[in-house]
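Module 6 notes. Inverse folding takes a fixed backbone as the condition and produces residue identities as the prediction. Think of it as a translation problem where the source language is geometry and the target language is the twenty amino acids. Below is one complete input and output pair. Work through it position by position during the lab.
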């Protein structure tokens, strides 16, 4: 894997020339998932054909998910803190990160390509409306970024430790590099939440890049997952309508 690492690297995830996703190691394949199930009967397949694909689909559609945990995927990912915050909310991965205590931060801040407006219905989401900032606000933001970096550098020059000087940075914009490892089952759970229309745009881009980086590792598994998810979305929309109808009057002030 490491000798061909460029094949599995997706550059410029957020279109700012900084972030990336790189698959650095993988253990297992579609065949390994099937054989993890077959071992229950003390059987093993040597090739992945239609019968193996049928079994793989059966496993996923009937929620026999432990065989998918036999595949391990590992990435090196560079992303802003606002994205990492949404990574670590998932309790199915292992993380190691570059430390601001050991090495100084680079002057690398994330600036969104557009400033999205607040969604009027979803309290936690942005909308497709693009906000045109006033020249005054744009100047304030630029000055804030420059000042934050300068204060950080000046703090260290005056002897403040790196672990405390970093408190003077714009934390949500800072880029961090992590090693992330998940099994295939956990990864598909991650995709369900983060490669979703309701997820923040930035984490969606990283989820899509991670998925693209493993398309040649577990192609049948991802095809199965995508098919299942399309049908699950339809069911999810139906459940959402039932939920809204059932609780349509809850929270309304009485007249």
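Target side of the pair, the amino acids:
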């Amino acid at each position: 894997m490491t000798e061909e690492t460029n094949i599995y690297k997706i550059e410029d995830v957020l279109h700012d020339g900084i972030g990336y996703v790189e698959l650095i190691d993988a253990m297992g394949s579609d065949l390994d998932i099937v054989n993890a199930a077959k071992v229950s009967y003390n059987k093993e397949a040597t090739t992945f054909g239609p019968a193996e694909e049928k079994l793989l689909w059966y496993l996923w559609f009937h929620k026999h998910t432990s065989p998918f945990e036999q595949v391990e995927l590992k990435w090196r990912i560079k992303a802003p803190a606002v994205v990492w915050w949404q990574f670590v909310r998932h309790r199915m991965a292992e993380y190691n990160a570059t430390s601001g205590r050991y090495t100084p931060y680079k002057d690398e801040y994330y600036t969104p390509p557009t400033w999205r407006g607040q969604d009027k219905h979803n309290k936690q989401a942005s909308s497709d409306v693009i906000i045109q900032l006033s020249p005054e606000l744009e100047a304030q933001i630029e000055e804030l970024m420059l000042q934050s970096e300068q204060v950080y550098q000046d703090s260290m020059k005056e002897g403040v430790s790196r672990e405390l000087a970093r408190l003077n940075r714009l934390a949500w914009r800072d880029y961090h590099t992590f090693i992330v490892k998940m099994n295939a089952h956990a990864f598909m759970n991650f995709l369900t939440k983060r490669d979703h229309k309701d997820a923040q745009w930035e984490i969606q881009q990283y989820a899509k890049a991670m998925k693209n980086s493993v398309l040649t590792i577990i192609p049948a598994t991802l095809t199965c997952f995508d098919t299942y998810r399309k049908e699950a979305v339809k069911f999810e929309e139906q459940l959402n309508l039932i939920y809204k109808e059932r609780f349509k009057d809850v929270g309304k002030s009485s007249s």
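Reference fact for the lab report: Residues 1-5 have pLDDT under 50 and may be disordered.
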